[in-house]
Amino acid sequence: MLLSLFFLIRVFQGKDKKYIFYVLSSVSFALALLSKELAVVFPLLIPVIYFAFIAKTINKEGVKHIILLLIPFVLLAAGYILLRLHILPFTGAYSFHQDIGGRILVFLKTLLIYWGIILFHHDLRSRFDQSFSVSSPELIVSLVVLGLIVFYSIRSLRKERKLFFGFSWFFIFLIPASGILIPLFSVIAERWLRMPSIGLFYLASLGFTKLAHESNLGVVFKRIILVILIAYLCFLSVVTIKTNSLWKNSVSYFGYLLKFYPDEPRVHNNLAIGYEKQGKKEEAFGEYKKTVELAPDFINAHANLGGYYAERGEFDLATEEYRKTISINKSFTYAYQALAQINVTRGHYDEATQYLEQLRDLLPNSWKPYSLLGQVYFLKKDYYNSQVNLERALSLNPDDPNLNKLLAVVKARLSSP
To answer: Per-residue b/e over 233-272, b at no fewer than 16 CB within 10 Å?
Structure first.
């Protein structure tokens, strides 16, 4: 995305080969979209940069010029959003207000918390609570501060446009984390401030630079400002080091979050995943159980419980968990394969075949279901159907040496008297 911005600045500067830079900027933006979803807001930044640093005045010609310049960027962003919504829709165990008005109020309340995090690095953790009131002090203060920012940003367009740029950068890159349009894992997470905070730090650097060069300020006063700045940076460093002890791994972080959200299923599920990574299976099992107690439709937790039971040889319990995942989402393909594997282990080949046939119907263009069906039919000594499925698997994945070897064995069995 920064590379796209670099090429775009070259276009604004009117350098030679600006059309080549324009194409390079568009291509870089397309690649940025494939790298990070946050890049989708980049088209909003283009007019901000143009009117903050390039255009001497804001007029109709400038607006027309920037609209034409935006066309490929807007089309790329719109195309990406449509593909994202249809191919990888935002689904899962999200908790957010369905009413857009409620989501806007929640975002306005979180603004005050975000500003506090940037200034003081206080309590760097995800937040899931979404309680709000129109008359709450946090919301009122946030609205007042936001109103002042908007007022002075617009006013700065007449004279000092850098203020407009800094605040615009902050809000543009905070849009994807607002939760207004896209469901999010949590209401607040400090990692979402990494890009937005650049705008505020840019303004802070301008302020300190102006103070340093202000001739009316005495040397003593400037030194006091410098001491305060150093003390502030030391404070932020201490807070950051302290926070790192909580963020060192998933177990320490989500264990810390449980103090605030003991009944939040997503926290329990992520803590369970952390325990699994550390090889603490019993602790992981307990957290997965707690997750499904709090959220019976938490599909991944049921699947992980199924895997836990299967590993212990408790196949009836494993089957029950996997069947729950299918009742929640009939397209959850992993469950069909897992159920087939359980039945193969138990010698129930007919049941395994039924699950794999359902998997094949869900994934008709994947070689995997046909390969597994071919293997199960081979175990059933149904060599004809084994050959049919293995040949279909090979047509979809012709370079798999294991499929070729098994198919050769099957053909040998068919040709033997």
So the answer is: eeeeeeeeeebeeeeeebbebbbbbeeebeebbbbbbbbb
Those residues with Cβ within 8 angstroms of residue 41's Cβ, 6 or more apart along the chain or in another chain: 172, 173, 175, 176
**How far, CA to CA in Å, does 262 sit from each of 186, 283, 293?**
15, 16, 12
Rounded to an integer, what distance in angstroms lies between the CA atom of residue 269 and that of residue 273? 6
Query: For position 94, what pLDDT does the model report?
Result: 45
Inter-CA distances, 298 with 15, 259, 266, 329, 331, Å = 55, 21, 9, 10, 15
Q: What is the pLDDT of residue 188?
A: 74
Tell me what percent of the chain is helix, strand and coil, each rounded to the nearest 5: 75, 0, 25
d(CA 387, CA 380) in angstroms, rounded, equals: 12
282-289 long-range contacts (CB < 8 A, ≥24 apart) are 284/308
pLDDT mean by block of 10 residues, the chain; 417 residues: 87 79 91 87 91 82 88 92 71 51 76 82 68 67 85 79 89 83 68 86 86 75 86 88 83 89 90 93 94 93 94 94 95 94 94 95 93 94 93 91 90 82
CA dihedral 370, 376, 380, 383 (to 10 degrees): 30
What's the pTM? Answer: 0.69
Sequence-distant (≥ 6) Cβ neighbours of residue 180 within 8 angstroms:
100, 103, 104, 107
- Half-sphere exposure for 171 (CA within 13 Å, toward CB): 15
Q: For residues 32 and 195, what is the distance between their CA atoms, to the nearest angstrom? A: 14
